[in-house]
């Protein structure tokens, strides 16, 4: 049995952490539990179908009394060792980000598409954001501000002119009308910078709805982020990550997040 004792990062990181561990355990018939994952049951009720409900009290007791140690996934070079430990230990508590099982996570994509179907009324969202006029191409644009000002010394923090330039580059290779859906954590975003150039709408929805909307776009573009990676994974949506202001964007550079992404 494998028990994940701590979720890593924010929502998208939690989801990716979950599918790598859960899919690996499924492949090897190992019971897997993620006690803190129950906070996502409200928006993703299908997750309640199987055992993520290992007792938090019991988990804390085992850890506090040191009856079982916690294996920390702290070194990406040690993934083969971590996998061996998961297979061999009768009960293993674990935490950390550096565990991946790409071969099983993507093999089981259809399963996770079902488990992570949000409990939402899709029709109003379809009408407001996803309805197409005149064969429009819908492009989801993730503008990450906030924490990205400091993250990696601002490496993936871009101003509006960079996003506008990349959208225009993409549109130059698409021979259809367009609709841009902009997703951003910037409460002071200058929306006029985008509406003067594009047919643009803005999402002010919670995370589970933004993930859903992103997953239904024709293209996704934004800085390096697990937020768009998850949406691409769950929706099989072509994605492009902006790494530098000098990137040249074209439709052929977009790809669905899969085992060959890295």
Write the layout of secondary structure elements.
Layout: E1 2-4, H1 11-27, E2 32-33, H2 56-64, E3 70-73, H3 79-88, E4 92-96, H4 102-107, H5 109-115, H6 122-130, E5 137-143, H7 160-171, E6 178-184, H8 192-195, E7 200-203, H9 207-215, E8 219-223, H10 226-235, E9 239-242
Parallel strand pairs: 1-2, 1-4, 3-4, 5-6, 5-8, 6-7, 8-9
Helix pairs in contact: 1-10, 9-10
Major sheet details: 5 strands, parallel
Write the H/E string, N to C: EHEHEHEHHHEHEHEHEHE
Distance N to C terminus: 29 Å
CATH class of the largest domain: Alpha Beta
How do the strands of the widest beta sheet line up side by side?
Answer: 7-6-5-8-9
Helix content: 25-40%
Gross morphology is elongated
Q: What CATH architecture of the largest domain do you see?
A: 3-Layer(aba) Sandwich
Number of domains: 2
Q: Estimate the strand proportion.
A: 15-25%
Runs in which pLDDT lies below 50 for 5 or more consecutive residues are none
SS-based class: alpha/beta
Rg calculated over all Cα atoms: 20 Å
Counting DSSP H or I runs of 4 or more residues, the number of helices is: 10
CATH topology of the largest domain: the name is: Rossmann fold
Number of distinct beta strands: 9
Mean pLDDT score, rounded? 91
